[in-house]
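Why does residue order matter? Because the sequence determines the fold. Keep that principle in mind as you read this record.
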Amino acid sequence: MEDLQRSLTVLSDPQKALVRKLCSLGQSHLFAKWPCNTSPTSRRKLATQLQELDEAYADGGLEGYINNAKRLLSDSREGVNPLEGWEPSVPEGERFDLGTKEFEETESTGRPELGKVGFVLVAGGLGERLGYSSIKVGLPTEMATETCYLQYYIEYILAVQVKYGEGKRLPLCIMTSGDTNEKTAKLLRKNNYFGMQKSQITIVQQGQGVPALMDNNAKMVLEENDSSKIVTKPHGHGDVHALLYTHGVAKRWLSDGIEWLTLFQDTNGLAFHTLPLMLGVSKKLDLIMNSLAVPRKAKQAIGGIAKLKHQTTGEY
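Structure:
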């Protein structure tokens, strides 16, 4: 420990305190090479990344992350059911068949609401699983015109803007990641934003994620060929809500007269076909949040949407 203390002299005081705290939390392996064969530059690099990760994790920094991970890993190992005490039920909503009177009436209710929508595209992924090395929003929606998803989305928004916007420009926010940020911006610039005004588009970028863990003791992992860098993994699509808040996007849109947010995935062009219907249901039932889904068959390997109520507390 004395040798480690001497190697901390190149760090700032907050970084020194963080390294000591991490050692007390079982992360001393991250600094095992520091006293003997690491350069001041590599030590500062690792300490800086750790500091950024600490500041980015809202629930208690890295200490909270490690403690949460240990608890969850322990619960998993012991077979603890995280939904114990919660009773599922069918959530409030509507089910429609195409072409019915109810479908057409609800869609008619939602159509005028299209002019009050802000669009949020979650676009943090690459198309590697599809055999495509670049951003998924650059993939073609179909092969006749090879219109890419980003172009399709923007042209849809512009069409809605013309028909229902009443002179108002409808905004688009794109959440990117470190993998997709520059490529997304480049695709937009190269194509002159596909006809949309640059000022209509806001790009918010996810952070570097959260540290990967090597075992049930929640030990963080160093890159195999770079001991000055922590392996991180994406934090998930839920980041979009925090980013809309921290970047002031939601507040700005509200002041501009936007009443609805629609959040959609990078390669789900078909979802827009039912947007008027979804808005109609949301308006009719006065919903704060609404999700669109297709019917799930029993044992089908897809997620389900349910309403959960705690049997003891009554919490939803």
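The two ends are 49 Å apart (CA to CA).
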